[in-house]
């Protein structure tokens, strides 16, 4: 297996690594725990992430709420009184989540703060709930409230900016194509048809321009690479007002975990046709999640998806779904939380999931500003071996090898002086297994991840 590192074609520049503070950060209240988690995610000794997604929650009307999991309900910064049918902002609310955001910002690595919403505020919806319509595939935001939603979201954004928080993007719609609501709800969400989504985005763009705000639109956080994603992009690019304040198209790469060719099709059919846009992969976790938190398979899958989204899919940044999820023990006794970390409801118990290390093999060694390289490798039909290469701003060539099959040998076609190899497997993680003169051939153990740094 030969990898071309002599003259690989240079592709897009990496804009960032990130994760989401949704659902967990409001419960991480102990200062010592918050500091440890902030360092793990955004600190120099941890992942060193640069993108932070803060959830502008739709709020909870306790007398009219069907979401039973407390982590999935949110504390809004807008307090609505149903009896008087009026509301006011209270920027002392959601304090724990905002404290976590500021703590992560203090680590000095975040350059992109994104405010996103799964739903409009409950007071603006048809149902009076932030969990979607009572009918599947039906928008829960009445047309009469489109501008009210935009004004509310931008008021919150402006307050954050006035606080000195570096908000770069706002993403008011999340996964618009899914059914959301109906007879069973488990989180906030809101369905939009394409014409509805476009009218909302147009109003947001108008309001941003009217207010002369130094913030850009982001989204629409399509829930998959295929499906309606191309239609969303087509509609957006036909609206000059929206495009004047929307430099990034964000999508999620769910539902094609075992298909690298779907990413190639996405890159060739969408990304390459729109060089004026930045394409961000803004959310992914293993779905459905078959890898429990202590199973190294989760790290292997995570690393494979990261590399394929960047190298084959053309993404310019990569962001995981939640940084922390609730401990979720199933009948086999294992925890199937899908976060990078797993915690109980009050964070009195928490730990690092194995998939964290699949992410670390990229973030700790491939900094923002690195160039994605076409090293000539593409996996065979088994998709067991994946090899991804990058050139860092320091002119180092970093290659991540994800081997989900048997032990194999990888040959590097390149001319370097030094080589460092960091390995993770079920027994140990991020262990430096070689640091010395450059070698053309190395062994990739079965079910392992290697980061190979050549200089």
Number of helices: 9
Task: Give me the secondary-structure category.
Answer: alpha/beta
- The total of beta strands comes to 23
Summarize the main sheet.
Answer: 8 strands, parallel, barrel
- Placed side by side, the strands forming the largest sheet appear as 3-4-7-8-9-10-11-12
What spatial form do the alpha-carbon principal axes imply? Answer: globular
What value does the Rg take, in angstroms?
22 Å
Q: Residue ranges: pLDDT <50 for 5 or more in a row?
A: none
Helix content: 10-25%
Mean pLDDT: 97
Note the beta-strand portion.
25-35%
In whole angstroms, the N-to-C terminal distance is: 21 Å
Secondary structure: elements and pairs:
Blueprint: E1 2-4, E2 9-13, E3 16-20, H1 31-42, E4 51-55, E5 78-81, E6 86-89, H2 95-105, E7 112-116, H3 146-162, E8 167-171, H4 194-211, E9 216-222, H5 229-237, H6 240-243, E10 248-252, H7 260-271, E11 278-283, H8 297-311, E12 317-322, E13 324-326, E14 341-343, E15 350-352, H9 355-363, E16 371-374, E17 385-391, E18 397-403, E19 408-413, E20 418-424, E21 431-437, E22 441-444, E23 448-454
Parallel strand pairs: 1-19, 3-4, 3-12, 4-7, 7-8, 8-9, 9-10, 10-11, 11-12, 13-14
Antiparallel strand pairs: 2-16, 5-6, 14-15, 16-17, 17-18, 18-23, 19-22, 20-21, 20-23
């Amino acid at each position: 297996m030969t990898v071309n590192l002599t003259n690989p074609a240079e592709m897009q520049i990496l804009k960032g690594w990130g994760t989401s503070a949704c659902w967990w950060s409001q419960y991480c209240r102990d200062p010592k725990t918050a500091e440890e988690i902030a360092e793990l995610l955004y600190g120099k000794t941890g992942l060193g992430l640069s993108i932070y997604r803060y959830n502008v929650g739709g709020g909870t009307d306790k007398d009219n709420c069907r979401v039973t999991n407390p982590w999935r309900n949110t504390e809004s910064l807008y307090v609505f009184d149903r009896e008087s049918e009026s509301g006011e902002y209270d920027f002392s609310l959601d304090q724990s989540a905002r404290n976590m955001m500021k703590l992560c910002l203090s680590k000095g690595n975040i350059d992109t703060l994104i405010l996103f919403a799964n739903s409009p505020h409950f007071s603006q919806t048809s149902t009076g709930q932030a969990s979607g319509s009572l009918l599947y595939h039906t928008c829960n935001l009445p047309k009469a409230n489109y501008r009210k939603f935009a004004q509310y979201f931008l008021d919150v954004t402006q307050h954050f900016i006035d606080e000195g928080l570096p908000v770069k993007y706002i993403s008011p719609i999340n996964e618009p194509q899914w059914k959301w609501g109906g007879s069973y709800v488990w989180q906030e969400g809101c369905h939009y048809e394409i014409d509805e989504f476009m009218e909302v985005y147009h109003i947001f763009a108008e309001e941003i321009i009217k207010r002369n705000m130094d913030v850009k639109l982001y989204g629409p956080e399509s829930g998959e690479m295929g499906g309606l994603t191309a239609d969303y992009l087509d509609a957006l690019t036909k609206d000059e007002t929206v495009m004047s304040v929307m430099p990034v198209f964000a999508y999620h790469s769910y539902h094609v975990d075992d298909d690298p060719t779907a990413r190639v099709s996405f890159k060739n059919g969408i990304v390459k046709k729109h060089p004026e846009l930045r394409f961000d992969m803004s959310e992914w976790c293993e779905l459905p999640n078959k890898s429990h938190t202590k199973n190294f398979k989760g790290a292997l899958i995570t690393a494979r998806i990261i590399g394929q989204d960047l190298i084959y899919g053309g993404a310019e940044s990569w962001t995981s779904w939640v940084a922390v999820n609730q401990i979720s023990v199933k009948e086999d006794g294992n925890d199937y939380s899908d976060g990078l970390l797993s915690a109980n409801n009050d964070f009195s118990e928490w730990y690092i999931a194995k998939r964290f290390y699949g992410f670390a093999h990229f973030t700790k060694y491939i900094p923002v500003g690195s160039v994605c390289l076409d090293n000539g490798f593409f996996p065979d039909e088994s998709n067991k071996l994946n090899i991804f290469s990058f050139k860092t701003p320091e002119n180092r060539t970093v290659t991540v090898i994800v081997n989900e099959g048997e032990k194999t040998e990888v040959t590097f076609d390149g001319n370097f002086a030094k080589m460092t190899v960091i390995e993770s497997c079920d027994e140990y993680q991020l262990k430096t297994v070689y640091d010395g003169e450059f070698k053309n051939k190395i062994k990739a153990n079965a079910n392992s991840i290697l980061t190979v740094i050549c200089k």
